[in-house]
Amino acid sequence: MQWRIGNGYDIHRLVAGRPLVLGGVRLDHRLGLDGHSDADVLVHALMDALLGALALGDIGRHFPPDDERWRGADSLVLLDHVVALLAQRDWRVANVDSVVVAERPRLRPHIDAMRANLAARLGIPHDAVGVKATTNEQLGPVGREEGIAAHAVALLWRNGP
Ligand code: MG
């Protein structure tokens, strides 16, 4: 068995007039994340972790922000593209873990729904998808609610020597 690990990070600015979507879950909040797609920072960090495990570059390369196809895109659909890239190379996801850094809203009630979305798209069991939430203790731009950040790691495997 062969193994590869990757890590990903992303941050998006919080602005008025945008939906807040995290892990494919739309949250009720007065601010949303700004970006070309739906700006789902958790899915973006996860995609970078998956791509990074195979040194396939980053999501900016695969989904350029000036490409009209991705305007307002559901990031879970972008995740499907990334999973297909891995599958083409016979790689499968063993597990992923992540942390979302946000002062508000409270994410805990939504964590299981995010995990279920990601597990379904990755084709792995629910218990192989970690999503955690923390605040930034009111420190820095995330602490001032100017943005939301996410970190992710992914472990991939394939059969072979
Ligand atoms: Mg992003």
TrEMBL record:
GO biological process, one term: isopentenyl diphosphate biosynthetic process, methylerythritol 4-phosphate pathway
Summary of subunit composition and partner proteins: Homotrimer.
EC number: 4.6.1.12
Name this protein carries in UniProt: 2-C-methyl-D-erythritol 2,4-cyclodiphosphate synthase
Pathway in which this enzyme or protein is active: Isoprenoid biosynthesis; isopentenyl diphosphate biosynthesis via DXP pathway; isopentenyl diphosphate from 1-deoxy-D-xylulose 5-phosphate: step 4/6
Gene Ontology molecular functions: 2-C-methyl-D-erythritol 2,4-cyclodiphosphate synthase activity; metal ion binding
CDD domains, alphabetized: MECDP_synthase
Positions with a binding annotation for a divalent metal cation: D10, H12, H44
Cofactor mode of binding and number, as noted: Binds 1 divalent metal cation per subunit.
2-C-methyl-D-erythritol 2,4-cyclodiphosphate synthase domain span: 4-156
Chain positions recorded as 4-CDP-2-C-methyl-D-erythritol 2-phosphate binding sites: D10, I11, H12, H36, S37, D58, I59, G60, T134, T135, N136, E137, R144
Catalytic activity: 4-CDP-2-C-methyl-D-erythritol 2-phosphate = 2-C-methyl-D-erythritol 2,4-cyclic diphosphate + CMP
